[in-house]
Design a protein that fits this description.
It contains seven helices and 14 strands. It is an alpha/beta fold. 47% of the residues are buried.
Length: 278
């Protein structure tokens, strides 16, 4: 299983679109790993985790064939994770020679409704017919080809059943926890009970080198606490890779500064274009 972090920022990006704070000015000057686009992960070339408005940029930067994507897992309805208008272009006359004729979108009911309303004015019936919207609820499990998908309850937007996901393929497991606060240990116990085993985990780190506690996001110390809970539940395989992602410019730390804090915690800092194989 290969994961590529196409984007690793929170909603506003780094540098943020309208911002002149020290972090954003420094990122513009330095470039490289201090530039972060909105969070998205590509798995094995055929699975996308979230679909932000920067997806087009990710396609250009990484020379991707996005028509080869068979499944898209969407966490919630915020535009940095769900930008459905792009799907209006998934077919003729906007796209030719596509690799996969049909794509499955896995999401909650709010995302399904947003998808329908935001594409209604422009999507062609034949394109719409090739996009299958699959609604999942927390702890629902399904299979898509050779991929096992388990939806989990995120701690994020009130009034929306936000999701995070566990994926399993070829005997390898990935736990993807973008845009969520700390999860209750009961979630990890339940995952362990259904035989999940994690080789790589990606954790929200919107608050950088802080402890956020209960809330809609995490910092590095919250992430470390969550990893300890996973380990106690027997979820993490020996040598499991641990990555922090989804960073805000408000943390006031560049890539090097984040790495310095994360290293003693046993956590790697993801950056745009970071690829990991497990």
């Amino acid at each position: 299983m290969k994961l590529t972090f196409l984007g690793t920022a929170a909603a506003e990006g780094v540098p943020a679109v309208f911002c002149n704070c020290a972090t954003c000015l420094r990122a513009k000057e330095r470039g490289g790993r201090d530039i972060r686009t909105r969070s998205q992960i590509l798995i094995d070339g055929d699975t996308l985790f979230d679909f932000p408005m920067d997806t087009y940029m990710h396609m250009l930067a990484h020379k991707l064939d996005l028509s080869a994507v068979k499944r898209v897992l969407i966490t919630h309805a915020h535009m940095d994770h769900c930008y459905p208008q792009e799907f209006c272009m998934r077919g003729k006359p906007f796209a030719h020679g596509m690799t996969e004729p049909v794509v499955d979108v896995y999401c909650n009911a709010t995302v399904r409704d947003l998808f329908r309303t935001d594409t209604a004015r422009e999507i062609r019936p034949d394109i719409e017919g090739a996009i299958r919207l699959n609604v999942l609820h927390p702890f629902d499990e399904t299979r898509s080809g050779d991929v096992r998908i388990v939806a989990l309850p995120a701690s994020h937007t009130r009034g929306e059943e936000c999701l995070v996901y566990y994926l399993e393929r070829g005997g390898r497991g990935a736990l993807l926890l973008n845009d969520t606060g700390a999860l209750d240990v009961a979630v990890y116990h339940r995952l362990a009970d259904i035989g999940a085993a994690v080789d790589i985990v990606a954790l929200d780190c919107t608050y950088g080198a802080t402890r956020h506690g209960k809330g809609r996001h995490m910092g590095l110390y919250d992430a470390a606490d969550q990893l300890e809970l996973m380990d106690k539940c027997g979820l993490l395989r020996r040598g499991a890779k641990r990555y922090a992602t989804h960073f805000s410019h408000n943390t006031d730390l560049d890539y090097g500064g984040l790495c310095a804090v994360a290293e003693p915690l046993g956590i790697d800092i993801a950056y745009d274009g970071c690829s990991v194989e497990v």
